What we know:
By secondary structure, this protein is of the alpha+beta class.
Amino acid sequence: xxxxxxxxxxxxxxxxxxxxxxxxxxxxxxxxxxxxxxxxxxxxxxxxxxxxxxxxxxxxxxxxxxxxxxxxxxxxxxxxxxxxxxxxxxxx
Length: 92
């Protein structure tokens, strides 16, 4: 698998693990959101990481909507806000 390929935890044999044997999954979904802050000099790129499933889905969905309207994401100023909300799990 090359560095640009993605792993689908639904089909990846390393993602399955075996809870009965105490073998944990070898991989997990992770989102690395990289952004520049043009109004903050000399700080370069900021990286926000999450492995929370719904956060990944929500961010990707909003970016798809923006890309659909504008045809691109590059050089479009966006505002990222942090909002508190009740946690969700895949197992409810």
